[in-house]
Design brief:
Layout (H helix, E strand, L loop, with lengths): L6 H14 L3 H11 L17 E3 L4 E6 L10 E2 L5 E2 L11 H24 L3 E6 L8 H23 L3 H6 L12
Parallel strand pairs: 2-5
Antiparallel strand pairs: 1-2, 3-4
The chain binds zinc ion.
Zinc ion (ZN) binds next to loops.
Length: 179
């Protein structure tokens, strides 16, 4: 069957299709940028090459595809027990091949996360399925809370607000009755 487009037209059509098909990490980046967060991409020397690195927040964000990184994948454990899938299912054909491949990916992911955590980084994993239109805002709101929690802990490390912790706690609450 011949293509009804010239190569140049075909290229244009395909690039248009791709651009409408927003990649998961792009959704995260757009949200963060739109909410005033700044980040870096493809930072070299950071374990696991996180999709987004936010130095100010000591946070590395991984946006993981559910299949390749095995989100809630259905496993057969060594004693033959089945863990149920809640996200992506492994094809029945060549099942062992896929299980091995995905498990290796998961092990490598875990090693990278541990390495980052050992160095004081917060690791946030966002799954592709958590970026669907109906849950995107909720997911990103939780990410925002985690970022700010980390920022607060970094801030307090350098400038602890001692007066707050020592004195405020001893004061009676405004609504409390004096006995
Ligand atoms: Zn998923």
């Amino acid at each position: 069957m011949t293509d009804r487009f010239t190569p140049a037209q075909r290229h244009l059509v395909m690039s248009h299709i791709r651009s409408r098909n927003t990649k998961p990490e792009l959704k995260v980046r757009q949200w963060l940028w739109g909410h005033g967060y700044r980040y870096r991409l493809n930072v070299k020397g950071v374990p696991g090459k996180p999709d987004i690195v936010m130095r100010k927040y000591h946070t590395a964000i991984f946006v993981n595809g559910c299949f390749w990184h095995g989100h809630g994948v259905e496993w057969k454990t060594e004693n033959g027990e089945r863990k149920t899938a809640n996200c992506c299912k492994i094809p029945q054909t060549n099942r062992d091949f896929w299980v091995n491949k995905i498990q290796r990916n998961q092990q490598r992911d875990q090693q990278n996360y541990e390495l980052l955590k050992d160095n004081g980084w917060q690791v946030i994993v966002i799954w592709e399925c958590q970026l669907k239109a109906n849950v995107l805002n909720r997911t990103m709101y939780e990410v925002e809370l985690l970022l700010n929690e980390k920022l607060l802990s970094l801030y307090q490390k350098h400038k602890p607000a001692i007066y707050y912790q020592n004195e405020e706690n001893n004061l009676p609450m405004a609504a409390e009755k004096n006995s």
